[in-house]
Amino acid sequence: MTAYCSSCNHHSRLDLEKLRDRYGPDAPAMSDDIVPRLKCSKCGGKKLGLIYAPDPSKVPGMWDGRANAYQKAKGT
Fold this sequence. Notes:
- This protein is an alpha+beta fold.
- It has a three-stranded antiparallel beta sheet, with no helix packed on it.
- It has one domain (2-74).
- The protein starts with a strand and ends with a helix.
- The longest helix has 8 residues, at 16-23.
- It has three helices and three strands; from the N terminus they run E-E-H-H-E-H.
- The chain is flat, with a radius of gyration of 16 Å.
């Protein structure tokens, strides 16, 4: 999960284990629950959003040839 600041365009990956330790294992993890508790570490702003995406290092096959068709098509 990545938090991004609408004020200064800063973004940072959230440490989910630290969030769990701070708010408890049963704390809800939806945007409406998490965003009010966050502030930008760069500018201190509160206009934040979240991007939910899998961690490719924890998803088997995410970086193999079948999953990277887009990158191959771009030539990267």
